[in-house]
Write a structure and sequence with these properties.
single chain; alpha/beta; Rossmann fold; 13 helices; globular
């Protein structure tokens, strides 16, 4: 039986890297001898919490917006988002001089709503469930004619997110394994495709909250399992896995691990105190996987993807 054709190829990620050069930050890689001792591994934290708009989402949003033809610019862009993708899309749209319509759940983190507004995005509130988000987005598109840039189920977004792995392997060439969070799968699918294309021997591990484990279950069963009532402080990882993302993850990811809420909080606190860098719950899930499953990583050179740093300071999980 022939292999399924994937929505994104490695050449798309290379093209995205050229397209977004100068539009996004080349984020630093931080290390801590104390955390290395604590885990028994050599850890290299790729700090996308220091990315523009505070998360890796700037990569995919910028690639999507700057892929638009001139004829498609006038109506602007639209999406639904719990926050980080919405802010990134609003930022990218503003830099190209077009409008951005962002559908957000009514319980979205205040800081993330403020970020969308600060970048000039137009916020449309809806009930806090996926059907409501999708229905409201349909209404917005029907009214405005805006082009949809899905948070993760979009080839342009996946290719943009994959550029983070090109950078990481330029910064730290000899990685044995890389760990990245998974919600909708835009980051993990793009990163995994880039990693296996450049360095086939590298192990790619997805990390997911146990209370929102649809990717873990989908990966294990070999078919897409819908997300059902996710319960986790990692608000950026409550989305269900995308249909474009899943086949890439199936082919290029080695395993998916789940982590407890307690491990996410511990990872946040250690990153704040030892790395002196602010990490949101979703951004701490990769490190939480190393803390919770140390035997998998012991004695290895581990890339840890810190996906975002947009924290609600009025509602810290400790």
């Amino acid at each position: 039986m022939g292999e399924t054709t994937l929505a994104v190829e490695f050449s798309d990620i290379e093209a995205a890297a050229e397209r977004i050069a100068g539009l996004v930050h080349r984020t630093p890689v931080l290390t801590s001898s104390r955390l290395n001792e604590h885990c028994g591994s050599d850890l290299y934290f790729k700090c996308e919490n220091l990315q523009k708009a505070g998360a890796f989402k700037a990569r995919g949003a910028s690639n999507a917006v700057y892929s638009l033809a001139e004829a498609d610019l006038a109506a602007g862009v639209a999406t639904h988002s719990s926050g980080n993708h919405g802010a990134a899309l609003a930022m990218a749209a503003a830099s190209r001089g077009i409008g951005a319509h962002i559908v957000m759940p009514e319980n979205a983190v205040g800081a993330k709503q403020e970020a969308v507004a600060a970048y000039g995005g137009s916020i449309i509130k809806c009930e806090s469930n996926l059907p409501a988000r999708e229905a409201m987005l349909e209404q917005v598109v029907a009214k405005t004619g805006a082009g949809v840039v899905h948070p993760y189920n979009d080839a342009r977004v996946i290719a943009g997110q994959g550029t983070v792995m090109l950078e990481l392997l330029e910064q730290i060439a000899e990685l044995d394994v890389v760990v990245a969070p998974v919600g909708g799968g835009g980051l993990l699918s793009g990163l995994a495709l880039a990693a296996k294309s450049l360095r086939p021997s590298i192990e790619v591990v997805g990390a997911e909250p146990a209370g929102a484990d649809d990717a873990f279950r989908s990966f294990g069963l070999g078919r897409l399992i819908p997300q059902d009532n996710p319960q986790t402080i990692a608000d950026g990882l409550r989305a269900g896995l995308g249909v474009l993302n899943f086949p890439i993850i199936q082919r290029h990811v080695d395993t998916i691990l789940t982590v407890t809420e307690q491990s996410i909080v511990e990872a946040m606190q250690l990153q704040w105190s030892r790395l002196k860098t602010v990490t949101e719950p979703s951004g701490a899930v990769s490190f939480a996987a190393v803390l919770e499953h140390p035997e998998r990583f012991r004695g290895r050179r581990v890339g840890v993807l810190v996906s975002g740093g947009n924290v609600d300071f009025d509602n810290l999980p400790w």
